[in-house]
Amino acid sequence: MVSWSKQTAFDAIVEGNLSCSIGPVIRIGVNDLHINDPEYYLSVTKPASNFLKDPAYYKTVGFPHAILGMTDQAEHRIRKQVLAPAFSAAQIQQISHRIEAKVEDICDILYGFAHSSTPVNIFALLKAYSMDVISDLIIGQAFGALRSPGFRHPKLDVMKEAIKGSWIPRAFPVVSRITLALPNWITKVFLDIPMIEVAMATSSGVDQYLEDRAASRLQNSTAESTANAAPGSSIQEFERKVSVPIERLLDPASAKGYTPLCRDHLHEEVLVLLGAGNDTTSNAMILGTYYICRKPEVHRRLEAELKVAFPDPSQTITLASTKQLPYLTAIIKEVLRLSNPLPGRTPRVVPEEGYRLYDCYLPPG
CA angle 281-10-44, nearest 5°? Predict the structure, then answer.
């Protein structure tokens, strides 16, 4: 069975729900099994699992130096230790004021639409909001999508096309292998690949962050402390837009055995963080908005809870205050359950000791 048909077979299983009529285990290739069983899925994908990512598959995904594309278990574990604290609840609480500032922006926008006869494109608005938040947190500078006419920022359009194009290498991996093997200058000049444009824009943002970081450190070496720095100085400006993920990726003390990334590998990791943080978050918010509007009882209960918690429409709503609302919390958890960020296969390789699946022994490989 040729490799592209494995993805086709998987899509048929998912879309046609074949596993309901055939059974939880279906062979979709000579050495490929599709298993529809949550218990076995968790045992295969848990952090301590010996099932490694399939190198042949992840080569077609690209980003071999980012956490998404890493197939070496030890290397992946170290990178996870580096990045995980940057997205912990405690860290998010520390930078919540930056997210809340964007919430204020989107509230002002919606308030303007509420007092006009013009409808608002919620899909485009939430995509723009998510892009501005994640770019501010990851590279220290919002792209400004919320300020774009119709919330149609060029980077959002390119990102959309890049995500659509990501299905091609998954169905036809040989295309991805050929493309990835070409020199960068050929792909930039002769191939219209949206992801390349996204990568170039991301690289520019990372380089600007590194330049500002160097300037801040230089000025900091001549100042006693950030608190004593002159208002508007590069030190204070940089402190307001520091990127915790980048800082951890540059710090050799972030994890035992970690070596800081070179510039190219840093660009790659940041590109993955931007893409993953934008599309998954915006899709969840869009899906949540849709279902809340489609379910009048859910809408009424949520509105009632919010009015009790925040009776003054002008008062500031903080992350800490929203965590105290049980119905809102339940809705968020349900939305996260429903909003699958990326459908498709994430194949693993049977470890050297083999694996027993029901009553059958699966050999390694």
Answer: 70
